[in-house]
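Quick one:
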Amino acid sequence: MQRELELTLLSRSLDLREARTTTLANEVYREPTVNYTDPDRFEQEMDTLFRGAPQVVGLSCDLPLAGSYFTVMLAEVPLLVVRGEDGFVRAHLNVCRHRAATVASGRGNPGRVFKCPYHAWSYDINGKLLGQPSAGDAFAGVDAACTGLISLPAGESSGIIYVSPAAQSEPIDAERELAGLGPTLAGVGFDEFVLFDEQHSTWTMNWKQPFDTFLEAYHIFSLHKDSLSKETLSTPMLTESFGPHSRGVVLQRDAIALPGKPEDEWTLRNNANVFFALFPNSILNLPAPGHAELWQFYPDGGRLDRTRVHVRFYTHGEPRSDKQRKFYERMVDFTMSFVGEDFAQQEQIFINIKSGLLPEMIYGRNEPALAHFHRTLQSVLKK
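Output:
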């Protein structure tokens, strides 16, 4: 991250702590609980957000070389995302044009040919059909346009990869999608990171609830009193919005000593957790240990009460020793443990709001990113 920005974010955060305050919204925000439980609202979210708009699907380091690929399920749409020989990211529906079998799974580096396991139809990284073994002239007369993988719009900027799950949508301008966050994200240098771990889990809650948990630090002192709170302050949280997105900075306890140290010892990554809430459902988290996390929350099986959590952990280069690898393994375990506290709490909250007797949740002025997300969501759904 740019040095000037590092110092600015640290200074502003420390000023807030000195003043015994945090970033404050202009007013309290009230979110109707029905917005988490109403089937009609949920269908509108699916159509507008998950099927009708570009989505973050990964980081540039997920596709380090030409031929690199990964697969992902995006709102029940199976995707195959690849880096072409020209260096550009492409996305295809991960479905064979013959009998709709899944073409690829997992990730690879590099791959040049994708072969369907059902009848061995093969495709190149551009989605073009290469072969139909043992078919002879059985498919003669079929238009070539109907045999290649279906292409989907994709774009890449500042280390972030976007894909639209709608085949007929407009090309993606990823820089525009980032709404001014591009320079900050580019300064992180995501091309130097490598995937360390990847985990999936499913929870009984609405997809917005786990996203909500990352948008405020107010709960750290209480919910995480025996875990995260030992290292991380609950307040202040420095928050700014960038179009539909937000950036937040939460200080580590060690940062309290920074005002007594020379400025050249002030480093943001060692003294704060920085997160980027990328609308509508992705959290890019940069914790103090120096790694990166990409959290994504999807309705599971098209259900409003089931959420699939997908998280990838990235390290700055490959671990250089067994000791370093074990450190990151402990970091993953620790993270999943305290985030599990959040999600278990959200499952109970979902049970409570399903009663229909609580009309609204109240977001305080000390939770501005939370209010910004829900205001943005309401605005987008009204268009």
